[in-house]
Structure prediction request, 378 residues.
Amino acid sequence: MDVPVDPNVVAPQERLMSLDALRGFDMFWIVGGGVILGRLAETWQSLWLDQVVIPHTEHVPWEGFVAWDLIMPLFLFVVGTAMPFSFAKRLSRGSSKTRLYLHIVYRVIVLWILGMIVQGRLLQYELSSLRLYSNTLQAIAAGYLIASLVLLNLRVHWQAVATVALLLLYWALLMLVPVPGFGAGQLTADGNLAIYIDKLILGPYQDGTSYTWILSSMTFATTVMMGAFAGQLLRSELSKARKTLFLLAAGVACIYLGSWWGMIFPIVKHIWTSSMVLYAGGWSLVLLGIFYLLIDVCRLRFLAFPFVVIGMNAIFAYVATSLFAWQRPVFRNIAEVFFAGVESRLGTWYDTTIAVGTFLVLWLILLYMCRKKVFIKI
Prediction:
């Protein structure tokens, strides 16, 4: 059987801790890091925090890119990085392509349902309020499905061709296809082709925001594929030094290429433009290269541990935070049980302390799960 993801390529004997750490690092900002940093800035009056750090903790309104905008692309990138390892492991154990496809479909369905639970209002049990495609987990599902077909059916050079083709096709569709009432090449929040298709197909079940999903699934897939190329590099027999060098060099090249393309096809995360894919993918490659260098090459494992605890159960952390920290402040209530009595002593630092405590409640749950080897996988 001709399988592009070759199970005979020797994968590392030990799990890539850097990948788990990077996944946990990304998830940290979602499940508590952003709130902690915001509370810290409010309490500790610092010009550096206010002018340099805090502007990077909120999404840009439309065009442009800050650190906070990297969270979702990095999540998709890490999913892609793990795919060559996961597929090769299953194939080397004797799983057929058919069984692998069934697992892929199962994973897509579960991610889609979880996305509807978290942000699609599924648990309101009202058809009129349902949002069919509106969440990061569903973007992962769509990107993962398309990238799986590419990985399992094409050799690496054709995978690259397919990825570039998707980027160029998305650019051509958004810039050349006219939108009724707006014309062609409009990248405004209301006038772009991607939002038009979402509203046309999803109708009342569209999420009502300027984020786009259906057509953007093409570029979700390219973000996942950028991670998959990194994963195939890490599975190769190259030395660790060369792997690190290639990751960092490719990252810098993609950042510059994305910036250049962004001059004529703006970087807009809301509609996941092709230039944004390259720019965000470049930063993701750089981060992976740094994490790989520090953790798997230099073996500074102690740096990884706090993030690995999160990364090993990332989906659980994301869903649990959404349901019990954002929608229902269960974790905060638990933190207040332990810290409410010292509110008068903490003064202005109380809100920061509660933010840290709220995160620690989840982190300790994840640590317990890790110690007991309970890993929620899809």
